[in-house]
Amino acid sequence: MSVESPVTLDRKRIQELIRREEEQLNARTPASGRLFRRANAVLSAGVASSYQLRDPWPIYLERGAGPKVWDVDGNEMWDFHNGFGSMVQGHAHPAIGRAIADRYGLGTHFAAPTEDAVVVAEDLARRWGLPTWRYTNSGSEATMDAIRIARAYTGRDTVMKIFGSYHGHHDTVMVSIGVEYDKIGDREDLASLPYGAGIPQAVVDLTIPVPFNDAGAMERRIARLDAEGRKPACVIMEAAMMNLGVVLPEPGYLEEVRDITRRHGVVLIFDEVKTGLAIAAGGATEKFGVTADLITLAKSLGGGVPTGAIGGTEEVFSVVADGSVFQVGTYNGNPLGMAAARANLHEVLTPEAYEHLDHLNDRILAGCEQVIRRHSLPGYAVGIGAKGCVTFAPTRVIDYETFKAHQDKDLTELAWLFNMNRGIFMTPGREEEWTLSVSHTDEAVDAYVAVFDEMAAELTA
Ligand SMILES: Cc1ncc(COP(=O)(O)O)c(C=O)c1O
């Protein structure tokens, strides 16, 4: 739902508010500023990962408990960032804490299989309806290995992905993510563009992007690549895009993709690193009722301990089982991560947990929609399971092209600053969304809506 005829916002006023809020945030976070100066001496650009960067300094956190986090200046905030969507359990959940403490006393790493790895795979197999599993330590490792499995299974090199989708930081998928609108190329022939430096052109050329929510464009591109002798090994995609805010699949789209990939003998990989365990017990696969050949998990699997997984059919996994593909890693199935994942799956992410997350998300989405309508803002609230966002755009975003053409960068920046100054910890960057946790309450989501209302009132005053 969005507003029929939104107000025209005063761009000068938005800039003034951004400046005011920036000054306020800097004044509230002097200890982060000091830590940044110290960090700069030993950490490149002062952070552990470039996704943690922010001008003039990142907000350094000290601790988290349940739905809240505290920064090094002592500012208390409701956490809607939740570790880029990893902490659907909330911080320091006692069941996961117990599992980690118990496991520590028994030893934390052997690089030999343990029972927990079997128990976790049994649970995941039930949730996803996919029989075969392997572990990794991150989402990037999961998508990297899933693509290798698909390449080995089909004997092909080309990889198809959705333009604008993020699947981790290995070379094959660091292609056609965030680029300028005028560079993306024609819809039928979208450009393969490296995301940052250091990615070999030869690798970039192997990855072919297509638009989201356009099964026809996907099938035509597969057919053309086939005619050129470079049919894709796989299509890797999120069933609902979670890196342009939230972009849901149009009705029928995923079913068509399933049908196209099956007919062309292309392995379908649903990257569920963000959707898996966050939008339903069985992720996007359960929510949309379409099963891929391979799925990848990470973020919310290990309850804050780095853990990832790949699930798939026996048929596609046969190349791992017969030893042709080396799906390996010293820390794969690490006992600490597996103990945390077991407690997470058995004791935390229960059917009642998903009922609670659905209730909270309905409430926050409805609250944000009411604010949008009351103030006639150009935008709409969209979400699913624990995930959602307000997209500031006069029309609905359905793919990268519409995102680039319509998303209001300034408003998104202002919303982030407004939140941070009023006790709502959110992901920096315009492409992100909120993640709720099982420890969030009505009070937490109402706080989010109240801050949004305050911003809307100031914008339209
Ligand atoms: C959909 C998706 N796939 C893969 C990844 C990579 O996961 P990681 O950062 O754990 O390597 C991400 C990270 O944001 C993601 O959103």
Task: Write the SSE topology.
Elements: H1 11-28, H2 30-42, E1 61-65, E2 68-71, E3 76-79, H3 82-85, H4 94-106, H5 115-128, E4 132-136, H6 139-154, E5 158-162, E6 185-186, E7 189-190, H7 201-204, E8 207-210, H8 215-227, E9 232-237, H9 253-264, E10 267-271, H10 283-288, E11 294-297, E12 308-312, H11 314-321, H12 335-348, H13 351-374, E13 380-384, E14 387-391, H14 400-406, H15 409-421, E15 424-425, E16 434-435, H16 442-460
Parallel strand pairs: 3-15, 5-8, 5-9, 9-10, 10-11
Antiparallel strand pairs: 1-2, 2-3, 4-12, 6-7, 11-12, 13-14, 14-16
Helix pairs in contact: 1-15, 4-12, 5-12, 6-11, 8-9, 13-16
Bound molecules: pyridoxal-5'-phosphate.
Description:
There is one protein chain. Helix 4 (94-106) runs antiparallel to helix 12 (335-348), helix 5 (115-128) crosses helix 12 (335-348) and helix 8 (215-227) packs parallel to helix 9. By secondary structure, the protein is of the alpha/beta class. It is built from 16 helices and 16 strands. The strands form 4 sheets. The protein has a 7-stranded mixed beta sheet with strand order 4-12-11-10-9-5-8, with helices on both faces. It has a 4-stranded mixed beta sheet with strand order 1-2-3-15. Strands 13-14-16 form a 3-stranded antiparallel beta sheet. Bound molecules: pyridoxal-5'-phosphate (PLP). Residues 84, 138-140, 143, 166-168, 238, 242-243, 271, 273-274, 298 line the site of pyridoxal-5'-phosphate (PLP).
